[in-house]
Write a structure and sequence with these properties.
The protein has 9 helices and 3 strands; from the N terminus they run αααββαααααβα. The protein has a 3-stranded antiparallel β-sheet with strand order 1-2-3. With about 200 residues, it is mainly alpha-helical.
């Protein structure tokens, strides 16, 4: 495929599967939402955790601002599945204590080395070519693609969910490493529900 130099069917298949899974679960997604999913897989939560007191306060405020939080318990990110988006509903519904969730969130940022911005830009370009080749009917595709690239060229690499996604799914989650999710979170919530 044009622009993809990786001679790896594994990469192509993994990206396609990640896109198909995401759109099956969240069919109202845009290219911005797909970008955010792949970005989160490459960067994790580390860029968000500078002040743990402020992070904890914001998480508590978010929890208290909603009566019910909908959605799946967890979704893997990107095509490498380095992280899971772990829904705040597991706290709200009493499946896990707040302190354990918060500990797992902080632990997920430890020791993970994100890719360099230039490497991420190259990777995203390859991912976007594959998404385009899937001929999906994503709304505002060209505008989103242009906006993402303009932000990347300005050194702004963190993405945000689209307004469409936020309105449709009201996402409330934190990123946790796959290791932390499987070894700390999942054993606790498995006692109360089927994942």
């Amino acid at each position: 495929m044009n622009g993809i130099t990786q001679n790896s069917n594994g990469f192509v298949n993994a990206v396609w599967q990640a896109v198909e899974y995401h759109l099956q679960e969240y069919p109202k997604s845009t290219l911005k939402d797909l970008y955010k999913n792949f970005f989160q897989d490459a960067y994790g939560p580390g860029h968000l955790i500078n002040d743990t007191v402020a992070v904890k306060k914001y998480l508590l405020e978010e929890l208290n601002s909603y009566i019910q939080i909908k959605g799946r318990i967890a979704d893997p990110t990107g095509y490498k599945h380095n992280f899971y988006r772990v829904n705040l509903s597991i706290i709200k519904n009493g499946l896990i204590p707040f302190d354990l969730y918060f500990h797992a969130f902080l632990k997920s940022a430890e020791k993970f080395k994100p890719v360099e911005i230039e490497e991420w830009i190259d990777e995203w370009k390859k991912i976007e070519i594959l998404i385009r080749s899937m001929r999906l009917s994503l709304p505002n595709y060209e505008e989103d693609k242009k906006e993402i690239m303009e932000q990347l060229n300005e050194g702004i690499y963190a993405g945000h969910h689209s307004r469409i996604f936020n309105n449709a799914y009201e996402p409330h989650y934190r990123l946790m490493s796959s290791h932390v999710f499987h070894n700390i979170i999942l054993p606790v919530i498995s006692r109360y529900s089927v994942y």
